[in-house]
Design brief:
alpha/beta; Rossmann fold; four-stranded parallel β-sheet; globular; binds pyridoxal-5'-phosphate
Length: about 425
């Protein structure tokens, strides 16, 4: 509808949507950035028209690449609440703290936005088989949307992947393979790439060089934030970061609305990574050139399993987002992430997985580092649901004490075990 063309981020080669491009034919893993016809969007749409629209991310139809409504594969993703965090804000000394609750998406993470767009495009292109290299939230989302669309999903996971996540994939009907990992190269990405390039499978991971469409989904997070803040632009947005596709997508959402003149500035974009794997924030600290990000040298060590990308596939665009918005990166420990999980659940009733709570851990770190003013408007993305990672929950929540049905025993045990007084 409003896509002008696609342009490779590496070699500059131009593609038209009708030619069904997914990966650059030069095979150097450039990302096919989508260029929209902003003039035509400005003629056809006014911000006031949004109010009447559907309560899903598809309310921003003109900024998404799917050519016709009949291809849209939706489970009701997006239009998640932006929650004013009163108790947490008070504890941190912030007057205007908001949580974007992405745990409410159909499969429990923001990846649903990405896969809704990706699978819609697969349907338009006529693909019958999709392939992904992940056992995490991207695979779960792809499996669900693939089921809805009647597209077969093949998922390659490392041989050591935990069973919990695989069970969810199998239930959605995905065909899951554990791939033995013996060389340095990630064998799951190798398989995905082979099946895409040689056998015509549709590659649908949550990073750009292998699929340029999915990254358009998370743009809508930025658009919702603007609408939900009554057209104010926040001062800072905290984003848990792995491949930096989410960071890039959210930035692109603010970019699109600057381009059509609906807003006239950017928030500072803040990338948060765990200590045990922070190649992207390290690149920011070194003021690296966007095309020259070094991968993390060791296996990732963090409870935030959604942030384990040792190479940030969309780090080039992510770094530009930080540089263009006077943004920055912060690094947080696993202990700080656990503490953030407890604060979110205990003060705001919001249960996030470790990757989902990393953004809040980043905000607390940024406050300590003096990077946040108390009256700034801060948005923290809470990206994935706590029940996604039952192992972590079991390990850290502990168990409940057992008592006889006796009030005296209840009061005594409550005082001892939970340290409350009556
Ligand atoms: C994938 C994921 C992220 C990170 O997104 P990237 O695009 O890889 O940077 C953050 N939180 C959760 C819950 C995720 O699943």
């Amino acid at each position: 509808m409003y896509v002008k063309y696609l342009k490779c981020s590496r070699c500059g080669r131009i593609y038209r949507l009708e030619d069904k491009p997914v990966m650059c034919l030069n095979r150097d893993l450039g990302r096919l950035d989508i260029v929209y016809d902003y003039d035509r969007i400005m003629e056809d749409v006014k911000p006031s028209m949004l109010r009447e629209r559907i309560a899903s991310m598809w309310r921003y139809r003109e900024f998404l690449p799917v050519p016709s409504d009949k291809y849209i594969v939706s489970l009701g993703e997006g239009w998640t609440p932006l929650i004013k965090a009163e108790r947490l804000g008070e504890k941190l000394g912030l007057k205007n703290l908001y949580l974007k609750d992405e745990t409410r998406n159909p499969t429990g993470s923001f990846k649903d936005r990405a896969m809704s767009v990706s699978v819609s495009m697969a349907k338009y292109f006529g693909f019958k088989r999709a392939v992904v290299a992940s056992s995490g939230n991207a695979a779960a989302a792809l499996a669900a949307y693939g089921a809805k669309a009647g597209i077969e999903v093949y998922a390659f996971v490392p041989d050591f992947a935990g069973y919990g996540k695989i069970a969810q994939l199998l239930f959605y009907g995905a065909k899951v393979f554990r791939v033995r990992w013996s060389e340095a190269e990630d064998p799951t990405v190798k398989m995905m790439r082979l099946l895409a390039e040689k056998y015509g499978f549709y590659p649908s991971p949550s990073f750009g060089p292998f699929n340029p469409y999915q990254i358009e989904g998370p743009k809508t997070i930025a658009m919702e934030i603007i609408e939900q803040l009554d057209w104010r632009v926040p001062d800072q947005v905290f984003v848990p970061t792995g491949a930096a596709s989410l960071l890039t997508g959210v930035y692109n959402g603010f970019r699109d609305w600057n381009m059509v003149g609906w807003i006239n500035k950017y928030p500072r974009m803040v990338a948060v990574q765990p200590e045990g794997n922070h190649p992207f924030v390290r690149a920011w600290m070194e003021r690296a050139e966007p095309e020259r990000i070094k991968p993390w040298e060791k296996p990732p060590e963090t409870i935030a399993t959604g942030l384990e990308d040792t190479f940030p596939w969309d780090g080039d665009a992510g770094l530009r987002a930080l540089y263009n918005t006077n943004g920055y990166g912060v690094v947080v420990s696993d202990e700080e992430i656990l503490e953030a999980m407890k604060l979110l659940a205990g003060l705001e009733g919001l249960f996030a997985e470790p990757s989902g709570a990393a953004g809040l851990a980043g905000l607390i770190k940024a406050l300590e580092e003096g990077r946040v003013d108390r009256d700034e408007t801060i948005v923290v993305l809470v990206t994935g649901h706590g029940l996604k990672d039952p192992d972590i929950v079991k390990k850290t929540a502990g168990d409940a004490p057992t008592i006889n049905p006796d009030p005296e025993e209840f009061f005594k045990t409550a005082e001892e075990y939970y340290k409350v007084s009556f």
